[in-house]
Specification:
four-stranded mixed β-sheet; Peroxisomal Thiolase, Chain A, domain 1; 2 domains; 33% helix; 11 helices; globular; alpha/beta; 22% strand; five-stranded mixed β-sheet
Length: 335
Amino acid sequence: MYRSRIIGLGHFVPDNVVTNDDLSTLMDTDDAWITERTGIKERRLIKKGSGEGTTSMGVKAAQMALERANVSKDDIELIIFATLSPDLYFPGSGVLLQDQMGMGTCPALDIRNQCSGFVYGLSVADQFIKTGMYKNVLLVGSEYHSGGMDFTTRGRTVSVIFGDGAGAAILTRETDATKGIQSTHLYSEGKYAEELAILGPSTQRWIPEIVADYDEDDMRYHPYMNGQLVFKNAVVRFSEVIKEALHKNNKTAEDIDLFIPHQANLRIAQFVQKKFGLADNQVYNNIMRYGNTTAASIPIAMSEAWAEGKIKKDDTILLAAFGSGFTWGSALIHW
């Protein structure tokens, strides 16, 4: 059985930098309030009318990953696109990316696991490669959050957290069992599905009904998050799935060269870091610059860490994510 190995990483974020002070002109908030609760200082948001979107950002991240991997788009045999913010209700963004990149007729698969989307996608890509079905897989995580956020005081607990951006990875077949993805671990708990969700529009509230009955005070049209419950579950599930990955591979926290958590909240990452006794140089966080980019957060962080020389040959890399669904997962990689 083959292993799968990441051979190229790429990312893209919009040029438009929005600071906490910028948000304070739109809502009742300030830099101290946001920083204390999230660790975020700024985020990148798409400028309306720029023509940028979920797919176009994914294309730019994918092109960077292909270039770094020295792989042609024609060598890609499967596209996996993780997002909660597709350009269209349907079809998914995977086929739109395929078209914009001028690729052939390889299959395109869309992943809807929100903050855990990249880890879920990584696991799916790993299985396809390990079985020998595909050799080269393009995995993209891209999110355009800002178009659906409520940038008023009413929506501040959510809107200050999220940013726009995309990340991508190229995975290929590896015959050395000591290299590449060593294991992935995935979970979900649907009873908490509505604790972090958008409840409308949906198949229960189609567009004509929404237009006719739209009430600007109806928060179902904007993301809802039960912040305290999400935080409590996140720190527990992060810990569980990290322990499982370490145990599966006979590793301890000391063996981890770099831990890259989903960039949900700096306080969560710091809690997990302290729990496992990880040094600052063992953890990579960039949420202070980009906010929470959901399915894009881990690949953006990986791409930056690699470019900064913090991911090197033979390093042991640990990924973990938790988010809407609730879904969570981890992956342990030997670079």
